[in-house]
Amino acid sequence: MMTLSPLAAIILGVVLAGWLAAAVWAIASGQRMRREGMQAQGKFDRLATLLASAPAAPVIIHPDGRMEAADRLAKWLGKPRVPNFVSELTAADGGLEPEDAAALAGEIASAQRAGKSFSVPVRGTGSSRLLLVRGAPAAPELASSGGVVLWIFDATDSQAEIRSLQSKVGQLSDALEALAGLVEAAPFPMWHRTPDLRLSLVNSAYVHAVDGGSAHDVIAQGIELVEPVGGLSPQSAAAEAVAQDEPIARMVPATIDGERRTMRVVDVPLGVAGVAGYAMDQHELEQARVEHRRLEAAQRDLLDRLSAGVARFGPDRALRFWNQPFISLFALRQEQLADSPLFERVLDQMRDARRIPEHRDFPAWRAERRDWFLSPDPREENWLLQDGTHLRVYAQPLPDGGLLLIFEDRTEQVQLSSARDTLLRVRTATFDNLFESIGVFSSDGRLQMWNSRFRSIWGATEEMLAKHPRIDDLMRDVQARLAKPQQANLVRELVRAATIERKQRAGHVGFADGRIFEFAAIPLPDGNALFTMLDVTDSRRVEQVLRDRNEALEQADQVKTAFVTNMSYELRTPLTTIAGFAEMMSAGYAGELSPSAKDYVDGILQSTGRLAMLIDNVLDLTQGEAGTLPIDRAPVDLAAVARESANRLSADAKAKGIDLAVSLENSLGVVQGDARRIGQAIDHLLDNALAHCGKGARVLLHGDGGADKARIVISDNGPGIPTAQQDAIFDPTARAGQARAGGRAGIGLPLARQLAQAHGGTLQLVSEAGQGTMIVIELPRG
Fold this sequence. Notes:
The protein has 782 residues and is an alpha+beta fold. The chain has five domains: 49-154, Beta-Lactamase; 186-281, 2-Layer Sandwich (Beta-Lactamase), CATH 3.30.450.20; 288-415, Beta-Lactamase (2-Layer Sandwich); 434-535, 2-Layer Sandwich (Beta-Lactamase), CATH 3.30.450.20; 631-780, Histidine kinase-like ATPase, C-terminal domain (Heat Shock Protein 90, 2-Layer Sandwich). It contains 25 helices and 27 strands. It has a five-stranded antiparallel beta sheet with strand order 2-1-5-4-3, with helices on both faces. The protein has a five-stranded antiparallel beta sheet with strand order 7-6-10-9-8. Strands 12-11-15-14-13 form a five-stranded antiparallel beta sheet. Helix 20 (595-626) crosses helix 25 and helix 21 (638-656) runs parallel beside helix 22.
């Protein structure tokens, strides 16, 4: 057994303590390094996990072309493994499109030589996947000089989104361009203000409205479209719109093209983009509104004046308007309609008044009428009420969703239509049974209507007439029945003149059997022509007889006139002789006469004088009837002529106890005429008045006149003349009949009228039984 010295033991203890300390330090350092290694490994693992989950796959390319890449690159390239060298990646079968592979190889080579970064998109062969490769020189820690680091991104989704965004950008760009074009082409001013409310955009309409040179000038000068109104400037209105964050519209005046116009200006806030605005010319619109209100008032006034009942309902089916005939027609009251009842309620009120047709299911009927509001087309119905009233109902849907109802009372029209149908049947029966032959021809000359008389006269068959032949064909078939067949042309011409020239013509035609017909072609209002024929055979015969008799009477009257004239002259010869001898005897040429003989001679003279006057009267009357009464034309003082007549008959009036008064005014004056004939007329009238008045009567001779005529009036208060006898007073034939019956046979009154008429004047008789008689002669001045 070896024994250590103390020193050696000390030295050994120190060495062992040193080794122990070193062991302890080594163990502590190992533990520390182990912890650091574990932390580094964890960090490495986290970085590896982060790198694996990164959107890009890292690739390190060494200068010799060797590659280090993530495993997912193989999946992106569609390969089972990652390429080991860059040549494999850029080869034809490396998984990239040839063009993209060549471009990538060129960019990698440039990065290796020049050390520049690059970015290039590549696409896998036969794949829709798009890879974005970003390259840069590798740090020395990753690769030696000439190395390149690639980051490969899968840009398939992002590229699709980019294309979508590009498409949207293009669409928005097109929309913006179209909107800009629309704003520019707008016929009304539009503008845009920046957030500080300065003009930044105006369209051509704005420039034109403010008479600006260009949009740039208008914006540069800040020319506003409208001026401030009520202290509110355009900028203030825009600021208010921004503050309220909603569009603000206002009506302001503006001067456009030298005219004062009313504009509706609208400011629209656009947030951070500023404020947009536009202005609409409301001048025409306001005028149109005024015109619309005026037309609506006129329409309401017109509807209120219609005889038909009118009711208008609004879109809510409430009654908005009615006229007085509507109330009267349906027996409604004003207070029932004052609160604008609904359509259904109005129908209920009409039903309560028993003024609608009876229906078993009234609610269903009312519902059907409610559908009128939704109908696209007007509706029309006929209502027959219980009291026999016929109503025509017209329902017109209105553009605003309302309904206009018009109720027309057609009761009278229905009655008139029924009466018309009855009249048509009566007319047809009458037309067919008239004695006249009647045919109606249309404007083209075809026979449209005829009666049985027409068919029998022309001997036409019903079958032929039923074909409605033209007038030419009809006359060709029946002209053999005429005495002169060529007269068929006359009938054709008359029908043509009536249908085409619209002229009425008439004529007569003879038939072969001796009958004579008068016919006429008369235009009708509807363009047709009425052709009538009347058998005048008997009337023509009677006419001929009357014509012969008239000729005989004229000859007899001429003989009578000649006889009276000759007899008047023949009677004057012995009458003149008798009067001459009587005057000689009265003068004493035959010796002194005894008183009784002298009375006889005076009686002879008086009778011959009266007989001579009667002969003159008869001769004058005969000449007057024949129109040969001689009348002189010279100025006649009517007052002098009237006084002479009064003086001549004053003795007779005095002898009969009659008061003969004369009242002649200065206005009676002078006329152009025959003084003897006028005096003769006055004599006859005075003589007639004295003859018919008794003792104590009064006869007045009055005269006056005017500027154009003179008037002589003979009136009496005698017995008067009954009305039934006044016409016979001036008829010589009737006077002769009265003489044969024992009455007075004077012809003075007829002769006086003829004398007045011969002067262009008139003689009028005014008399009443028991009230006297007045005869007025009016003579023209010229």
